[in-house]
Structure formats: structure tokens, C-alpha cells
Amino acid sequence: MAAQRGNFGSRFTAIMAMAGSAIGLGNIWRFPYMVGQNGGAAFIIVYLLSAVMLCIPIFLAESIIGKRTQLSTFGAMEKLSPGTRWKWMGFLTVFTPLIILSFYSVVGGWSIEYLFKSLGFAFTDPAVSREGHSAIFGAFITSVRKPLILHTVFLALNAVIVMAGVQKGIEKFTKITTPVLFVLVVLIMVYSLTLPGAAAGIEYMIKPDFSKLTSSAMLSAMGQSFFSLSLGVGCILTYASYLRRDENLLSTGLCTAVFDLGFAIIAGFAIMPAVFAAGIEPGAGPGLIFETLPFIFSTMGASAPMLSNIVAILFFTTILFAALTSSVSMLETGVAYLVDEKKMSRLKATSIIFVGCWILGVFCSLSFGPISDFHILGSTVFDFCDHMTSDFLMTFGSLLFVLFVGWKMDRESVYDEFTNGGTLRGNGRIFGVVYFFIRYIAPVVIVTIFVTNLIL
Ligand code: PFF
């Protein structure tokens, strides 16, 4: 087992890998459409509160378990609480990321399509109207062959990266791409904010209308914050198990959360002003950015076609990299389980998961076209997988992690891991507060939001 496992070489690499997992389609694709579907600024406020009050404690809880045991969820729980049912969380943390990966890779496939489109100068033709671009997107996602091929390509890229192993694959990859992503989204935001009509979008992002804050919007905001930081699925736990023993979990967690939040907010300000400038419906759903971005690039293209095309290519390359650095972390979570617990080779583990995700992804993709009338509990297959994972499974997983660290592990072990045996004095000083959030605040708030949503 030891030979199959790896380690992150340095703190920078570890933070970049975790931020790479966190920053992904969740920030660029899902956050803007969730904001649009749930009423704007009020949703963002709950999202931010959840990030600070819940996500940081959950992140710490997961990484304490991972770093302490150097194992993925199943083995980690068994090691810390032998012979109990906690180890069954291992299954939850294998299945949830894999369901996410299935629909995620469909959107990953859409990003590939849009990268190709930008390489073919598709957004610089002034003859194509905003509605024209929306129609092109609609025709694409409702078709069968192309989205399926691209879904397959996206998953295959993941498999290749994960099979290469932690050091050679993920590490090298994320170290370069994550910082580049950040710069690109800031550039797009600056342009978007200057569009005529952008003011309404800015207002939508900053002026809360609390009447829109239903209990389901609150659950979605919480779920989105978990989704964005990859929490409750054992992904952060698995990455933390690759951390060096002397790593400072608090600074790793805070850096990752700040990068991730900052990225989502910037992406929101890059997309929402353009949504309003273009007259697109903010609640348009999963296709929101794919309808908005062509508008951004086309308007840019009217005055500077070459520049707009370069930005478009860079942007879709960015999205693709962001998506890949996140999706490899989902795949890695499942692979780590099979390698650690079932003693499989990485090749075999990756292949098995590839097939499972591919099949579910096919249904997700077809749910925009031929099987759009097939509903599970009132949602299409894609929406069902999307909402079931973030609103339910990730929330449930997060709750179990904080309960485990707050109530099952003994306080001394948690302190020891959080302060590296007492050597990190600063961490020691705030331990009491952190522990209180893990033990009381996070579980109570999660349960309250969840139950309120069930009742109302
Ligand atoms: N945090 C990723 C994103 O925002 O795109 C999504 C994600 C990655 C969810 C890894 C879950 C996971 F295990």
C-alpha cells in the first residue's frame, strides 16, 4: 500500500492541489447559475456565512482525520474507531464524488466543445445574435452524439491523469494551472463590468432581496458552499492524507477557502453583469454561462475581434483546466479507496470507476435531449444527480465528519493534530473556538437548515 501512495512535495503544492480541487466548474459554472436561480445577493450572503461558519470547521475536521491516519475515509475511520459503523462512511465518500463526476464530466464535455468553438473563431461573427448563440447551445446539448463523445473524452483525460499517480499527475498539473486560472477570470470580470447595462447585474449581486430567501434557497446556498470546497465527500480527507506530517492544517484550510470563495465571487461578477447586459434570464439554469459567454466574446469582438478571440480561447482553456483539477480529485477519492482497501492496482481501480461514471454520465447527458421527460422525484437525471449530491449527500457527509471529530475522537488527538503536537502555538491559542465550531455550531446549523427545508 505504501508504495502506491504518494505525498505532496511542499506546502505550496498541497495548497494548490486542494485549491485546484475546490476551484472548478462549481465556481465558474455552478455558482453563477445558483445565484441566478435563488435570487442574487441574499443567496450570496448565506453562501458566505456558510463558508465561514460551516465550511472551515468541516474542512478542518476532514483534514484532521486524513492527516492523522494517512488513509482514505474507509481505512481512516476504521483506524480511529475500530470495529464501529463509522467505516461505512467510506462508501458514502466513494459514491458521492462518483455521482458528481458523472454529471460534472458532461459539463466538462461542454467546455471542450466551447474550447473548440473558440479555436474556430465561433464567437467573433457579428452576424450571430445573442439568441442565435443560445439556440446553438440548445441544439448542442439536446443532441446525442457530440455531448456523449466529449463526456467520454473528458472522463478519459481524468483517468490518464489519475493513473499517472499523485506525484507525477496531479501535482505537476495543478501547480501550473491554478494560478493561471485566477488571473484569467479577473480579466474577464474587468471587461464584463464595463459592458453597457452591467449595472443591473452588479446590483443583483450586492443588493439583497430577502423575500427570495426561501428555505430551499438556504439549503442550496449551504450545499453550494460545500460543493465548492469539495466537502463532505472525503476528497479533502484524502488529499490531507497526502500532506506532510508537519503541515499546518489551519493555514492550508484558510488559504484554500479564501482562494475558492474569492474565485466564486469574481466569477459571479464576471458572469452576472453580462447576463443582465445581454438580457438573459438569470434563472436559466445549468446552461447559463454557456449562453452568456458567447455574448461577452461577441460584444468584445465587435471592437477588437482578435483580442476577443484570444480571451475566449484562454477562458475556455481555463474552464477546462479548472474542471480537470477538480474532477481528478473526485476520481482520486474513489481510486484511493480501491487501492488502499481492496489492494487494487491504480490501473484497475481507475478503469472500474471510469466505466461506472461513464454510464451514469450518459444518462445525465441524454437527460437534456431524448430522455428529458424521464424524471426522478420531479427532476431530470442531471438535475437529480446535481441536487441530490450537493443538497443532500455532501451535507450529510459533512455532518458526519464534524460529528466524528467533535464527539467521537478524543479532544487531545484533535488538539494534537491541529497544533502538530503543540508546536503550532498560534493554532493552540484558537483551538477552543475551532473545536466549539466543529462540535456545536456546524452540526446544529446544518441540521437546522436541513430540517427547516424538509418541514417548509
Ligand atoms: N469543488 C469542485 C468545484 O467547485 O467545481 C467540485 C467538487 C470537487 C466536488 C471534488 C466534490 C469533490 F469531491
Task: Give a short overview.
The chain has 456 residues and is an all-alpha fold. 77% of the residues lie in helices and 0% in strands.
What does this structure look like?
The chain is mainly α and 456 residues long. The protein has one domain (11-455): Up-down Bundle (Amino acid/polyamine transporter I). The chain is built from 18 helices and no strands. It has helices spanning 11-22, 25-37, 41-69, 73-80, 89-119, 130-142, 145-163, 166-193, 198-206, 215-228, 235-240, 249-278, 288-303, 305-341, 346-366, 381-408, 411-418, 425-455. α1 runs parallel beside α12 (249-278), α3 (41-69) crosses α10 and α5 crosses α16 (381-408). The longest helix has 37 residues, at 305-341. The model has no long low-confidence stretch (mean pLDDT 90). The structure holds 4-fluoro-L-phenylalanine (PFF). Residues 21-22, 24-27, 97, 100, 227-228, 230, 233, 235, 326, 329-330, 333 line the site of 4-fluoro-L-phenylalanine. 4-fluoro-L-phenylalanine is lined by residues 21-22, 24-27, 97, 100, 227-228, 230, 233, 235, 326, 329-330, 333.
Number of helices: 18
**Any idea of the CATH class?**
Mainly Alpha
Helical proportion? Answer: over 70%
- Quickly count the domains: 1
Q: Number of DSSP strands?
A: 0
Tell me the span between the first and last alpha carbons. Answer: 48 Å
Shape: globular
The CATH topology: Amino acid/polyamine transporter I
> Radius of gyration in whole Å, from Cα?
21 Å
| Strand residue percentage | under 5%
What do the pLDDT scores average to? 90
**Which regions have little confidence, pLDDT < 50, spanning 5+ residues?**
none
